[in-house]
Amino acid sequence: MILRVLFVLNFLYSYAVLSQGATGNMNLTSELPTIIGPSPAVASLMRFEEIPVNEYTGMPQIDIPIFSTKTLYSKLNFNMGLSYHASSVNADEIAPYTGLGWNLMAGGVISRTVRGLPDEYLEYASTAGKGKVGIFHNNPGGILAEYSNYYYVAEGLINGGYDPNNEVAEFKWDGYEHGKYDTQHDLYQFNFMGHSGRFIIRKNVQNNRLNVVPLDNNTNYKINIDYDPETFGIEGFTIIDENGINYIFDEIDFCEYTSSASFLTYFDNSSSSSITSMVLPYPTAFHLTKVKDPFGNPIITFTYKDHLETTYSNSATRNTLISPTVEFIRSHYGDQDFPQNIKRMKPKEIIGTTTTEIKSKKIKIIEISGIAKIILSTDSQRDDSNLPPNHGAQKLQSVVIKDWRGNLRKKLTFRYDYHTVPYSIGTGRNLKRLILTEVRDYGRRLENPDYQSYKLTYNDRRYSGRVIKNPWGYFELEPQSVPDVIEKNYATVGVLERMQLPTGGEIKFNFEASTYSFIGKDTVTDFHENPENTQYLGAEEKVLRVGDQEGVELFYSGTGSIIAERIILEIDIRNLRDNFLKLRSINNITGEAAPDMSIPCSGEEWCNFSFSPDQDYSYSLYVLNQYMGSPFEVPFTVVFLEPTTLQKQYVHGGGIRIKSVEYYENTSGTVPTIKKDYDYSLLSDNSKSSGALSYPKPLFDYGITLQTHFTTTLGIVTSHDQPPVTYNVKTKLNNLSYVKTHGADVGYKNVTVKSITPDFENNGKIESTFLSPIDFPETGDDPDHFDGYMLDYPFLPSHNYDYKRGLLKNQRVLNNINKTIKETHNSYGFSEEELIITGISLSLDLLHQCPYAYRYKFDDYLYYVNNDQNHVGVVYCDAQGFPASHIRMLPMREAKGWTKLTKSVVTEYFDSFYRIINGTEFTYNESNKQLHSKKVGTSNPEETEITEFLYPNDMLATEPFMAELIAANRIVEPIEVRKTLNQNGNDILLHTTRAEYDLFPNGTNKYLPKYIHTFKGGTIPINTSQMDTRIVYHDYDDYSNPRDVSKKDGPRTAYIWGYNNQYPVAKVENATYLEATNSALGLNFNKINNPSNTEQLQGELRKIRYGLSKAMVTTFTYFPLVGIESVTDPKGETIWYKYDDFGRLEKTRDLDEQILSETNYHYRSNP
């Protein structure tokens, strides 16, 4: 069966019961805190194993839980599991140590993306180069003055400053010409225990200190940097969340060595090579090592093991000469200077290989203080084809979980295989990558033949055809003569397809290729790439003989007739080498030729080009430039197509998405218990996809024209009319600074989810509308600030407004007869965007007419300045004058904003005449990004109920110890909650609850609530003396658990904590904590905190029961990390609970050993 039993024993240890709603805020309560949770029998829940889906991106959330527990600090839980992301089937992905697509969610990391050079990097000049200077080294002074990076001066110039000493000119020259200076701030991204965010580090040039600049405006984190003030080397971070919990990141992954080898081929087929390296180690990631509560108590500790891992990457750039021809340069400037002039041009080809050695960290041990110890084991036996020899890459083998006494509580092992795609990546082998196939849970045994397991199966379908990589990096099949959508859906090869559950049930995932009809707000108009839009008419095989054949005719259409609406050329380009193809068209009536159409070929072996022929033209295939070498053949196929009657108004691309999820009761089932179908069509026009790219289609080739300084055989600069040189540049990597939306390439505005039962009955549907790139594109209306796409050189990034996207705007629920039964309409507000400069782009000014500066490579900037006007033959360049004026300097900015839900209106329809409308309005606290007020409508249209939340920043002037809470970043604790009724515009205060804090000097000083006050009616109380005191917290333990509470003037209740403060072991009513632990009772707290067995603990607890005759005593014992073992009520009657090896409740017995309840689990047996 697919139902899973979960046991939840939820102890609420907080000093005030706080409930967090959908708006992310909490409410104070004036009731006594709930310390003891319900019994296991009551807490056992049955739920359907349903997979949540991020409908906006079409990505399901697929998780395998490993372990979860509360910690000694009540506001922090520890969760460990595996999480799967389907986009991992991308061709360039390297499988992590849990297999392709799976990530272990346990600790946390701050990753660093180096942009340019590491910000703190400083490498001195040597025979190998001029040195490299990171962005932080702006004023070393003394003998190191030549290593001053003038980035911040340049940034000031962009913002309206000036450059009196030409420092910016030197920054531009040496930064662009020699790569000496870093020009961009590195990007830091953190992800740990439910928190995520991004930031950069800037240097304050006034005081020489480093400061964190968040790139998210919706967070409350405080981030402290630990760094060397001399070298600016980052040694670690401490992130303090909004609850004051400290997360320390000081285990570092170091890039030990980076080597880049480049092989250059020029247009005369000469070549050269170079090797550059970064020999100084620098950090690439910072791992979470410690978690401490706001009072400094250690809560979780992570220990790591070092692994040296090697990776490599390849790059390739091919420049095709458009004009003038190589023959023109040779003949026009002479043979003697031909080799020199060729070197002044861009190389014909640049092949690069980068090898990186990283000393990485893998979690070895996790210690949850006083609760558990988790041991992880790995090995390096991997045979992925996209890893280099001696790669050092690991795979996770096992996870062993023990309680704090060392008792085994859970053991899991992981089994793997390899998934292979017939796609060569330059290694001569198919792409083979590690995949996780099974997770075995042995429970509390090292070996258990009745283990439970998750079994995983991946899409391994095989189709005929050549496998290629599409522009987004996913696999596709090369388009065939007969178009088929299978070509596009091959992108799902390797994705998770089935997951067998320990319960015996199974979940099947059906993925498909993503679609889009929009690029930002612009509608796509050309849908010929969609194979669903064409049908096959025929094909012809042809050959172009380059060298002795000018061209080859594709077909002759005849005047006024046409044989196909669409033509596809499938060209074998393996022999084409450096030549460039073009399509020539001639008017059959006039004989005039139309402008040639260039054919971009980005593949390595095959090129597909399609066009719509004109009925009055005939077409031929040519080589772009005259070829003088030995003849060779270029085979190709002409495919004739015509459009289908019903045209799909979308194209495929941008990754994959979920199409349906099917749930089966058992693995042999053929009909799902329930099926969820996902439709991404535009609600207003179902012929269109609602998908929109947040950024244009990846760009791998572009044109560029450069002024070039050629010389004649006399060695003199030629006259003013030398022609510019035009190239087509083709690269292996995307040239655009790509922006994703919520981690995906496509965001969907509309998603319809249908639920289908086993009898194929429609259970209704849910139609959702999201804010997407259609509503908030990256393009802007201010070209002076480069707000939007730059689709040509230098490809400046856009500002990234993704914080406005992916939000639910509207939702409609319809029943099985298509009648609306519920509607939700949400409104959002956006904070003012702050544009943060994250770097400066240095690039050639293509409009600069003087080639002199960037054709002569002087050793340094000063030599360039001193010799500029003295060089022979540069008279016509004098007008350019200013040093480094050929180098353009553009700011790189990123938007920082905050999105707020301001209003939500929910309408429920009960019949044709009756409906209920509930509207809620929200305002927010600017200081901590939390909810400030919630205004809810009532049945009376003239009335609204308003709830206001006040936090430490709001109460700073009136309440004690607020400054201490703010200093500890405990900024989201609600200090006061007010409820108001607005009638006809008049506010009537209904109720106020306020927490009054005090200093509890128990161990580390703790600022915690002492009193909970309430006030009803009247005006807002100025101070607590005007309020009624309801709850008094008399004492807390070291971990802020209340251990002595009461209502005002009411009987006291004491809580005694055992098992290393993990669990409450006694609730003592009508006694103070001091009375319950009086030395006269003879309690041995070592036995309470660390009992060797249940009998020993019960013996200590009986001392309290028998020693306090006026108190009512309830005691508890536990199986640590499993559940509650016994509950003894004030009458002395005990109920016992027994669990199986997997922590599932089996039996409940009373004090007479009579069975009160029994549960048998009949799951699928393992082979």
Fold topology:
Blueprint: E1 4-7, H1 40-43, E2 44-47, E3 53-54, E4 59-60, E5 62-70, E6 77-84, E7 102-105, E8 108-113, E9 122-123, E10 132-133, H2 151-158, H3 167-177, E11 187-192, E12 195-204, E13 209-214, E14 222-227, E15 234-240, E16 246-265, E17 271-278, E18 282-292, E19 298-323, H4 326-333, H5 338-344, E20 349-368, E21 372-379, E22 395-403, E23 408-424, E24 430-441, E25 452-458, E26 467-469, E27 475-477, H6 486-489, E28 496-500, E29 506-516, E30 518-519, E31 522-523, E32 534-546, E33 551-555, E34 566-572, E35 581-587, E36 597-598, E37 606-611, E38 617-623, E39 632-643, E40 651-664, E41 674-679, E42 681-682, E43 685-689, E44 691-693, E45 701-706, E46 725-731, E47 746-748, E48 750-756, E49 762-770, E50 808-814, E51 820-830, E52 834-844, H7 861-867, E53 887-896, E54 899-911, E55 914-924, E56 931-937, E57 943-950, H8 962-967, E58 976-983, E59 986-1000, E60 1006-1016, E61 1028-1036, E62 1042-1047, E63 1052-1058, E64 1063-1069, H9 1073-1076, H10 1085-1089, H11 1094-1107, E65 1112-1119, E66 1123-1128, E67 1134-1139, E68 1145-1149, E69 1155-1158
Parallel strand pairs: 30-44
Antiparallel strand pairs: 1-2, 3-4, 5-6, 6-7, 8-11, 8-18, 9-10, 11-12, 12-13, 14-15, 15-16, 16-17, 16-18, 16-20, 18-19, 19-20, 19-46, 20-21, 21-22, 22-23, 23-24, 24-25, 25-28, 26-27, 28-29, 29-40, 30-31, 32-39, 33-38, 34-37, 34-39, 35-36, 35-38, 40-41, 41-48, 42-43, 44-47, 45-46, 48-49, 49-50, ...
